[in-house]
Automatic annotation (TrEMBL):
It holds the Pfam family DUF2238. It comes from Microbacterium aquilitoris. This is DUF2238 domain-containing protein. Keywords: Membrane, Transmembrane, Transmembrane helix. InterPro entries: YjdF-like. The chain crosses the membrane at residues 40-57, 64-85, 91-111, 123-141, 161-183.
């Protein structure tokens, strides 16, 4: 993991992924200067998450998608988009839960909790399960925030169940896509080498 994290970017997608991480850092500074310290704190919470795909050797395209998703989700809190746009909460829960569950699935592979050579179809079961667990944890965090920190946080039974259902659906779609699309950078490199050897 250390070698993956320290490896310099080599493709345009890898440069883009690192650029999103830099943008995340600049976002914290911008929020601190032009918004509030609380907003800066919300964006700062996203910074460690942005480093995970690089450390585990995620495919560059997935790294970019994940980085954009996490950054948009964090800024949506700062800009209050979840309240001002009726469908925004549903869309973010669908995409974010699916993408985050995919990265979590890859983390479990890296730590050999999930066998690297397991049937790829197992992702159809595991990724939605992870996504539902993440959704439940997130809803607990929202409940704790409303109960102990900010009573104005919007939390209702319907909202909680709806968010978990949409997150589970997004994770199911992600699990199905993983069957066809490699999510590890090493798998992508191996495929490129195989294609090059075939051409020669």
């Amino acid at each position: 993991m250390r070698s993956e994290f320290l490896r310099p970017p080599r493709s345009s997608a890898e440069w883009a992924a690192d650029g999103i991480r830099v943008l995340g850092l600049l976002s914290v500074a911008a929020a601190f200067l032009w918004w509030t310290p609380t907003d800066a704190g919300i964006l700062a919470l996203a910074l460690p998450a942005l480093l995970v795909p690089r450390a585990i050797g995620a495919r560059p395209g997935l790294d970019v998608l994940y980085g954009v998703t996490v950054t948009v989700a964090a800024w949506s809190n700062v800009l209050d988009l979840y309240r001002s746009i009726a469908w925004w909460d549903i869309a973010v829960h669908f995409v974010a839960t699916g993408v985050i569950a995919t990265i979590a699935f890859l983390v479990l592979r890296r730590f050999e909790v999930v066998p690297a050579r397991a049937d790829r179809r197992s992702s159809v079961v595991l990724v939605p399960t992870i996504g539902l667990a993440i959704s439940a944890l997130w809803e607990m965090v929202e409940w704790a925030g409303k109960t102990f920190l900010a009573p104005d946080i919007f939390v209702t039974y319907q909202d909680t169940i709806g968010d978990m259902a949409v997150g589970g659906l997004g994770s199911l779609v992600a699990g199905i896509l993983i069957i066809r699309i490699p999510i590890e950078r090493t798998a992508l490199v191996a495929a490129d080498r195989k294609e090059q050897s075939w051409r020669t």
